[in-house]
Design goal:
Strand order of the largest sheet of chain A: 6-7-8-3-9-10-12-11
Order of helices and strands of chain A: EEEHEEHEHHHEHEHEEHHHEEH
Structural class of chain A: alpha/beta
Distance between the termini of chain A: 32 Å
Number of strands of chain A: 12
Radius of gyration of chain B: 25 Å
CATH topology of the largest domain in chain A: Rossmann fold
Largest interface: A-B, 25 and 22 residues
Distance between the termini of chain B: 14 Å
Number of strands of chain B: 0
Strand content of chain B: under 5%
Number of helices of chain A: 11
Largest sheet of chain A: 8 strands, mixed
Helix content of chain B: over 70%
CATH superfamily of one domain in chain B: MetI-like
Strand content of chain A: 25-35%
Structural class of chain B: mainly alpha
Oligomer: heterodimer
Shape of chain B: globular
Number of domains of chain A: 2
CATH architecture of the largest domain in chain A: 3-Layer(aba) Sandwich
Largest sheet of chain B: none
Number of helices of chain B: 13
């Protein structure tokens, strides 16, 4: 822990489309600066359509038009090298992927080739990056699967012969077989039932801790974040609204949106009805002026309607972007 | 074992049923038609000369026997199967008394050779080029190929065939106008090379049309395939493009493609009528054409039977190959 492994600065990534001469811009990632340390589990939370997956695509360097990085930078710090992730050549991508940077996709149900046995898919992925014979890659695969507690017969199966949870575990193994330093996981537990979810979370933890890899975890499920993440960033409508260590964000959320998000979680002893956040997230082709959350915010003031709040520090490693919080802070007596 | 009992056996039974029904219908249809082949034949024979009534009657009986038209329809049907099982399809009327089997046998190998080769070549070309074009839709050669195909595809086959024929046998005479080979069939280079030489032009005309069709189909299949999660994921992991093309894209489009291939191969036995007529190729298509012109029912029947068996066998093979192509079929 300590050294940053990936950093973004004022990152803006928009979907720019043009249909019949009408240009449409969707500001899916707007002015996001984050710094993720090596060996840390960094959670990115937020509801659907808030730009989580877009941010991940840009971080991963895997995006194509209409998604365009308009401004800002993404930098990897790997083996004392500084790599600009926005302008990667195909060769650079090939050499980075899987060996250094890997990806566990959303909806792993269909990422395994249905007409190929699991062991052949592993061989395809391994031999793309390592100069190995089939025998060697088979040995790597079977010992890795055994370490992760997956049965040996998985190797000779076709994807449709495996359960959803098993397929997800196989995909995690496939993504991490070459021990990448940086692992991105996009909704790894969505679409799995709770029991299977626990197994998958356990496995992600194991994989991450084994070599001290960095795991960037994207999910809307705060429960999963609480289980895994060291730090959590909350996105709303393409903006970073709050970032803090997991314990802090769950115990003392500052931003009204984060408060809603945490309050909507069921607690063990709570029997009362959970409240939901009023309204729905804004469309990002015409985002609201000022603070993007003001339309749904019960504390909104005049200033929130016009001025975009700045990121302010509210504690150790804790920052948020909210006028209301900023005002409270300025009224507090200085100690 | 369950695969054999639940999957293979029912399909073999189905194959027998299809052939049985098909052949029975082929037997019935001409008999339901108001045209009596015996009267027609009598008309042909007596149009040039007069015969005495005694001889006419005798002739009618001989013809009835020969055509298998004596007795009740049930008797005829049983006799028909009896002869069929012995491989007897009766004599040709036109070139009496040569057996139909011999006439079809003379043409069928030419047709199988020509169409089989042309279908295989155009299938492989179409699938590989079409999938390539679908995988790299932005490349200049992909766009170029697609333009060419879209231009060639709508040209009616007979026009394409005639254009090739005129260009390459008349204006620039590099290929022969008619025929299938030079010399007697034998295993010599001279004979084999002449077969290739004579077959080149008709095969080329078939390959052009067939490739265009399969290119369009393969491109469409590949362009849905490249949006699938497993192709995108393999792309992201930088799996080599060649591997993705063959094992991720083409491999997943094999189900419809192999169906198309097998059914095309099944239609071989009908011959390629236009090709064989235009290029004067001695296959069954040409035989069928002559038979229809001269009302040679036995030959028409024979070729129809062959194509029923051909198509039924092709779809049987497709069904038997499916589980090898797609592991998911084995579950059903």
């Amino acid at each position: 822990m300590g050294q940053p492994i990936i950093q973004t600065e004022n990152l803006k990534a928009y979907y720019i489309t043009q249909a019949y001469g009408v240009e449409r811009t969707v500001q899916a990632v707007d002015d996001i600066s984050i710094s993720i340390n090596a060996g840390e589990v960094y959670g990115i939370a937020g509801e659907s359509g808030c730009g989580k997956s877009t941010l991940l695509k840009v971080l991963l360097g895997s995006y194509e038009p209409p998604l365009t990085v308009v401004d800002g930078s993404v930098t990897y710090h790997l083996d004392d090298q500084t790599i600009d992730a926005v302008n990667l050549t195909p060769e650079e991508k090939r050499s980075l992927r899987w060996k250094d940077i890997s990806y566990i996709p959303q909806g792993s149900m269909h990422v395994l080739n249905p007409v190929r046995k699991i062991r052949d898919t592993f061989h395809d992925f391994i031999s793309a990056h390592r100069n190995v014979t089939r025998k060697e890659s088979m040995k790597m695969t079977s010992s890795y699967l055994r370490d992760l507690g997956l049965p040996d017969k998985v190797m000779g199966s076709y994807p449709h012969q495996l359960s959803g949870g098993m397929r997800q575990r196989v995909t995690i193994a496939l993504a991490t077989i070459l021990w990448p330093k940086l692992i991105f996981a996009d909704e790894p537990t969505t679409a799995l039932d709770v029991i299977v979810q626990r197994g998958v979370i356990q496995m992600l933890k194991e994989v991450q801790q084994r070599e001290g890899s960095t795991l960037i975890l994207i999910t809307h499920d705060i429960g999963v974040h609480a289980n895994l993440a060291d730090r959590i960033a909350v996105l709303y409508a393409g903006k970073l609204v709050e970032e803090a260590p997991t314990r802090t964000i769950i115990n003392e959320p500052k931003h009204p949106y984060t408060k809603f998000l945490i309050e909507s979680l069921p607690s063990l002893d709570g029997r009362e009805e959970r409240s939901s956040i009023p309204g729905r997230p804004p469309a990002l082709d015409h985002p609201p002026s000022g603070c993007r959350f003001h339309e749904r915010c019960p504390l909104a003031k005049d200033i929130c309607l016009t001025i975009d709040p700045e990121m302010i520090s509210v504690g150790p490693n804790h920052r948020t972007a909210c006028h209301v919080v900023a005002e409270e802070l300025s009224h507090e007596p200085a100690i | 074992m369950t695969l054999l009992r639940q999957y293979i056996l029912p399909r073999i039974v189905q194959w027998f049923v299809v052939i049985f029904v098909g052949i029975s219908v082929t037997f019935l249809i001409p008999r339901l038609s108001p045209v009596n082949p015996v009267d027609q034949a009598m008309g042909r024979l007596t149009s040039f000369q007069t015969m005495d009534p005694e001889a006419t009657l005798q002739m009618r009986e001989t013809l009835l026997d020969l055509y298998g038209l004596d007795g009740s329809i049930i008797d005829q049907y049983l006799n028909f199967w009896g002869r069929l099982i012995q491989g007897d399809l009766g004599p040709s009327f036109q070139s009496f008394p040569t057996p139909v089997t011999e006439i079809i046998g003379a043409g069928i190998w030419w047709t199988i050779g020509l169409l089989g080769t042309a279908i295989l070549i155009s299938w492989v070309l179409g699938v590989v080029l079409g999938s390539l074009a679908g995988y790299f839709p932005q490349m200049w050669w992909s766009k170029f190929l697609e333009r060419v195909v879209i231009t060639v595809y709508p040209v009616p086959y007979y026009i394409l065939a005639f254009v090739l024929l005129m260009l390459l046998t008349y204006y620039w005479p590099v290929f022969p106008l008619v025929g299938g080979s030079r010399g007697d069939p034998s295993f010599t280079w001279e004979f084999i090379s002449s077969v290739l030489y004579f077959g080149f032009l008709p095969a080329l005309s078939l390959v052009i049309g067939g490739t265009a069709f399969r290119f369009i189909m393969a491109k469409a299949l590949a362009s849905t395939e490249i949006t699938s999660d497993y192709v995108q994921y393999a792309e992201l992991a930088a799996v080599p493009k060649r591997k993705i093309l063959f094992f991720y894209i083409i491999r997943n489009t094999m189900l419809p493609q192999v169906t198309d291939l097998a059914l095309s191969l099944g239609t071989i036995f009908e011959g390629a009528l236009i090709t064989e007529v235009v290029f004067g190729y001695p296959g069954v298509g040409y035989t069928l054409y002559n038979a229809i012109n001269s009302g040679d029912y036995n030959i028409i029947m024979g070729i129809t039977l062959l194509s029923i068996v051909g198509i039924a066998t092709a779809s049987l093979l497709v069904d038997l190959i499916y589980p090898l192509l797609d592991p998911r079929v084995r579950l059903r």
